Amino acid sequence: MNRENVILTELKGGGYRLTQARKAIIQVLCEARAPLGAPDIIVLMASIGTSVNKTTVYRELEFLKGQGLVAEVLVGDGLRRYELMPEGHHHHHLVCNECSAVECVEVESCVGEDVRQIDHIEKTSDFKVTDHSLKFFGLCARCRL
Amino acid sequence: MNRENVILTELKGGGYRLTQARKAIIQVLCEARAPLGAPDIIVLMASIGTSVNKTTVYRELEFLKGQGLVAEVLVGDGLRRYELMPEGHHHHHLVCNECSAVECVEVESCVGEDVRQIDHIEKTSDFKVTDHSLKFFGLCARCRL
DNA sequence: TGACAGATGCAACTGGGTTGCAATATAATT
DNA sequence: AATTATATTGCAACCCAGTTGCATCTGTCA
After folding, report:
1. Taking a contact as any Cβ pair under 8 Å apart, which residues of chain B between 40 and 79 contact chain A?
2. What distance in Å separates the CA atoms of residue A102 and residue A107, rounded to the nearest whole number?
3. Has residue A73 got a pLDDT over 90?
4. CB 3.0 to 4.6 Å from B140: which of A60, A97, B59, B96, for a disulfide?
C-alpha cells in the first residue's frame, strides 16, 4: 500500500471523513518533490480537478499537521510550506535566494542531534530545546544558469 | 568610541545624512539584546521620543542591511527581525515556541562551517551554498514557568 | 541662506493567513 | 433510499507585515 492510501486509511480509522478536498490535498502533498505553500497547493488542487476555498486548505493543513501526517517547513520568507512528515530520516532544506525554491538534503552530523552540545546550550542559555532547524541558502541549479 | 558612534561616523563618511530617524533606529538596535521586528522598532523609537512612519522604518532597515551594518534574522514566523551585524563571531538563535522571543547563542561546531560537508551537499544536490541558518526551537525561561 | 538630493510621510495597496457563521456533504443509521 | 448528526466547507470580512508612488520635507554643503 502506498503512502497516500496509508494516510487515507489512517484518517478513516480515526473517524475522520475522506472528503474530496482532503483526498486532493493529500494527493498533491504525496506527489510533491519539495515543500509546498498554501497558494501552490490551491493551484495544484485545482489542476487535478478539485477547486477549494483557501480557508479549507489552511484548515486542512493545520489538521494534517495536528495528526502528525504533515510537517510545516519555515524557510523565513513568510510563506508556510508543508511536506509529508518525513519517515525516520532526519533531513534539512536548501533554499534558493533567487527563486525561493526549496529542496531537501540529508546531513552527516548535525549539531541539533549532538546531545552534548544541546545540553551545553540549555545550560548556558536557560532555554529548553525541543527542536531545531538547519537550512542552507544559495543558488539552485536553475538560477545559476 | 562605541558601536553606535562608529556606525554614525561610517554613514556620515559615506555621504549619508544623520537624520533623527536614522539616529534613533540605530540607537534602538544598539541597545537591543535580541533581534527586533519592525513593529517593535517603531514602538521603541517612539518611546525614546522619535515617532516615525512605518515606511521609514522598513526603508531604513533595508538601507542599513545594504550597508552591511545590520543583519536580517528570519525565524520563520513571518516577521523579519534585525540585529546589528555580528562582529566576527558566528552565532545562531534560540526561538521560543510560545512567545516567539529570540535569543542568541554560539555553537561549538556547526555543519555550516564544515567545508567538507558543504562540499558534499553542493555535489550531491547541484546547489551552490552561500550561507546557512541554524535555529533551535523550544521554551524560553519565562515561558517555562 | 539657497539649493540639491537624500530622506520622510501619507495613503492606498498586496498577499498570506484568520475568523465567525451559515450552508453543505460524508458516513453511519433506520 | 431517506434520515440524521456532525465533520467539513465556503463566503466575506478582517488582520497585519510589508510595499509603492508621489508629494513634501530636511540635512548638508557651497
Report:
1. 74-78
2. 16
3. yes
4. B96
